[in-house]
Design brief:
Blueprint lengths: L7 H11 L4 E2 L2 H4 L16 E3 L4 H14 L3 E4 L18 E4 L6 E5 L4 E5 L4 H10 L2 E2 L12 H7 L6 H4 L2 H4 E7 L5 E4 L13 H4 L8 E8 L1 E2 L3 E9 L2 H15 L3 E8 L3 H5 L13 E9 L5 H14 L5 E4 L3 H21 L7 E2 L5 H15 L4 E6 L5 E7 L6 H21 L15 H7 L2 H14 L19
Parallel strand pairs: 2-4, 3-4
Antiparallel strand pairs: 1-2, 5-6, 6-10, 7-11, 8-9, 8-10, 12-14, 12-15, 13-14, 13-17, 16-18, 17-18
Helix pairs in contact: 1-3, 9-11, 13-14
The chain binds flavin-adenine dinucleotide (FAD).
């Protein structure tokens, strides 16, 4: 049953659960929770609830369960697949974790940090650094996204190559289930083979199995040295050959390897007009090595690059001589993403293939766009070291927004077909949300669907937690 409005009695019950300041129902107050970062999605909600403690989350979930009212958990709202926004405006409430934002405990001897789910990722990184530790999850949205959102989406980012995705970094979770019960899954242990590893069910579940209220993560020693170089190459094939060599020559010292097509730099300039890439080349790459104090990291990277240049694999390279210069290299990678949002609607993908298939993916995707959608501009960049490419396509500026969006559906479908044909995934790290749900669900085998449905039904039998995200609504499970 869809609930279309909240009666005064229900509103006062919510107020009792989260306090007066934790309840917003006016359109102006709710606006920032109902639109996404890129301006792609707008949704609706009957109310926005902002609990200040796990106990308040429990109280409101009990209420929602009694009422049969759907709930959308929301973190920093930086997700790119409409997971935290109900685009169908189906009469749900948004539960924002933003007030649940404390660092609970740092244990530098155990190399662990425990925080509320609404703690902003950058705050966790800063707190770790103050203890001479590193929390290595790193992404462009780290100043806004929350650790609960990172857990719910199994976030990736630029350091996956060395440290893994959120799934590899999380030691424990605290979760409020659909019926309001609290599960405390903290142990602080790195090894714990006691039955099912339940936290892994919630990591990457995109808020469909419960509301994460606390997260415990692994920390690492803060690297004493970081070396960064910006490279020019003749092709992405050369870039991936270089990466392969670097893995062997520099071993596990590599902490990031990103590729950037030359055409992307123009987008970064939309945000910082004076910005120039340190090299001119059709394919560009950022490589970062990091380590403790006892090895000659600069010598290792400089020596490796000298050999690669002598061989003609790299056409030019700039090794950063200061932290500020390294930061300016990374700014190109970050601003090109912002530049796309500033330019307006564009097709955004998050494809992954086997690392060795990256050149084929880019080559086939570029050919597809040039032949099937002339005038559209193809951009290729991403976490190539993990086999993850954001192959995005900009519509011609002459095309109206409505027509561009309509034609974008065919562009997206063509790119997904290429990735799937190569044995890849249509969602490397951003998730499924509402925008990729159909493609995700259609591609599952009956056995896979049965297991997913069984999990959802066991933990959320009334289908109240983030309905419409990831899975079809309960009535249409099949
Ligand atoms: C500029 C930019 C760069 C980005 N770069 C990367 C990148 O490199 N790698 C990457 O993986 N992603 C990237 N993203 C996507 C996004 O930042 C991540 O998906 C991030 O983990 C989302 O966190 P959030 O707190 O903003 O979650 P939201 O956007 O608020 O929510 C995302 C999903 O998680 C659920 N959710 C949120 N909080 C909770 C909770 N406490 N309990 C249960 N469910 C919850 C929501 O219901 C929704 O389904 C980028 C986004 C931007 C805007």
């Amino acid at each position: 049953m869809t609930i279309h409005s909240l009666s005064p009695d229900i509103l006062s019950a919510f107020e009792g659960a989260v306090g007066r300041s934790g309840l917003t129902t006016d359109a102006a107050g709710m606006a920032k929770y109902l639109g996404d970062w890129a301006g792609d999605y707008r949704g609706g909600a009957l109310a926005v609830l902002r609990p200040g403690s796990a106990a308040e989350v429990q109280a409101l979930m009990r209420l929602c369960s009694e009422l049969g009212l759907g709930v959308i958990p929301q973190g920093g709202n930086t997700g790119l697949v409409s997971g935290a926004i109900d685009t169908n405006c189906a009469g749900l409430v948004v539960v924002s974790l933003e007030r649940l934002n404390a660092i609970r405990r740092i244990d530098p001897d155990n190399f662990t940090l425990q925080a509320d789910a609404g703690c902003v990722l950058q705050t966790m990184k800063d707190a770790s650094e103050a203890e001479d530790c590193l929390f290595p999850l790193a992404l462009g949205a780290q100043g806004s996204c929350q650790i609960g959102g990172n857990a719910a989406t199994n976030a990736g980012g630029v350091n996956v190559l060395r440290y893994g995705m959120a799934r590899d970094l999380i030691l424990g979770l605290e979760v409020v289930l659909a019926d309001g019960e609290l599960w405390n899954g903290f142990s602080g242990l790195r090894k714990n083979n006691s039955g099912y590893d339940l936290k892994q069910l919630f990591i990457g579940s995109e808020g469909t199995l419960g509301i994460i209220t606390g997260v415990e993560v692994k920390l690492f020693p803060k690297p004493a040295q970081v070396e960064t170089a910006y490279l020019g190459l003749s092709s992405f094939e050369a870039a991936m050959t270089l990466f392969n060599r670097a893995r062997r020559a520099c071993s596990d010292l590599i902490s990031a390897f990103e590729i950037i097509g030359a055409e992307c730099v123009e987008l970064a300039r939309l945000i910082e007009p004076g910005m120039t890439a340190p090299v001119t080349a059709p394919a560009q790459a950022l490589i970062e090595l990091s380590s403790g104090p006892t090895i000659d990291l600069n010598g290792i990277l400089a020596g490796f690059l000298a050999d690669a240049m002598e061989e003609g694999l790299v056409t030019n390279a700039v090794l950063a001589t200061s932290g500020a210069q390294a930061k300016s290299f990374w700014a190109i990678r970050e601003k090109l993403v912002e530049g796309q949002a500033k330019r307006g609607y564009h097709v955004r993908t998050d494809l992954s293939v086997r690392i060795s298939d990256i050149p084929a993916l880019i080559e086939r995707a570029r050919r597809f766009v040039a032949i099937e959608h002339p005038g559209w501009i193809a951009l290729a960049y991403g976490h190539a070291g993990d086999g993850n490419i954001h192959f995005n396509v900009l519509p011609p500026l002459s095309l109206g927004a409505t027509e561009a969006r309509a034609r974008g559906i065919a562009v997206t479908a063509g790119l997904y077909d290429i990735a799937v044909d190569l044995g890849g995934s249509i969602s490397a790290e951003h998730g499924i949300g509402r925008s990729r749900r159909r493609e995700f669900w259609d591609a599952l085998s009956p056995t896979h669907r049965r297991m997913v449905t069984a999990l959802k039904t066991a933990l959320d039998p009334k289908g109240l937690v983030n309905p419409g995200c990831l899975l079809p609504s309960t009535e249409t499970f099949s």
